[in-house]
Amino acid sequence: MSRVPDPALSRVVLIGTAHYDFLPALASVEDNLLSLADVLTAEEVWGLPADHVTIVADPVTGADLLDPVVRAADEATDTLVFYYAGHGLTDPRRGELHLALKGSDAQRPYTAVSYAHVRDALLDSRATRRIVILDCCHSGRALGTMSDPVTAAIDEAGTEGTYVLAATAENQKALAPAGEPHTAFTAELLRIFQDGIQGRGPLLDLDTIYTHVRAAMRAKGRPLPQKRDRNTAGQLTLVRNRAHATPADLERESRERARARLEEHRHRPATGMRSRLVEVHDFDPRYHTGGPRAIQGKCSWHGSSCDEKVVASVLVRIRGADVWHAVCERALRTLRTTL
């Protein structure tokens, strides 16, 4: 697929239960929802309209969780994404996965929503692709961890165009580290969406995302995610790759490196050289991409002979080439009077 899914024809439902009446709280789940909504609506990632992303935080009833899924399933004709984060409960008799609500009780799994209801809603959708992301858990673990067998849910990926990505394999723990802004699995997913993957093309497919999340989790000694897909579903594009460099990007980086080299060697306008002061800003190291003096807040116009306080970042055009300098007050006065 040579493009991301059509934002106008796609829907995303983000559901998470962070606060509970009878189970340990998972504060990072709330940040999961907000961060995912933010990145998926970014034009450089997917560009979904905000009203095509539904957030459900701390659902109280089964209808609170299922109604948005049914609506999104009815509206989506291209791609439908369902995400759940929170505690997962299992039926001790059947081993089926249940998604916890605010008032769910580990001893009463019927107080949670059976994943089978979610699955049925997804399978009834006209969407050509259905993506399920489960960052869920069993509640019988110490605060700061989550665990649950999700294999039963994963094995339900039995129809064409369905892809299920789960935070952990059966009987393993999925982490919600105390003090971290996101759960461990979702944090790696967000990192790929936000930063991209170096060395890959302009688009990222589901299997590429899964492989890199798994590698990152393995490198940190954390539980490994697993996935199930039908035929070629894993090869379908989901988001744009923010780390992919276009020819224009490469050209811009080349110009910035050249400017940095000029700045580092304290380039000066020669006598009779046509030059002018283009821009003046309050000093900001982000204008200076390579010169150590400028980045450190030292005057790059006068060079190492100057210990005066830097007051501005200036852009000077010399023979058509633009060069950024960090300048002291004395250099700024000189530039304003001579250029």
From TrEMBL:
It comes from the Bacteria. Residues 12-226 form the Peptidase C14 caspase domain. It holds the Pfam family Peptidase_C14. This is Caspase family protein.
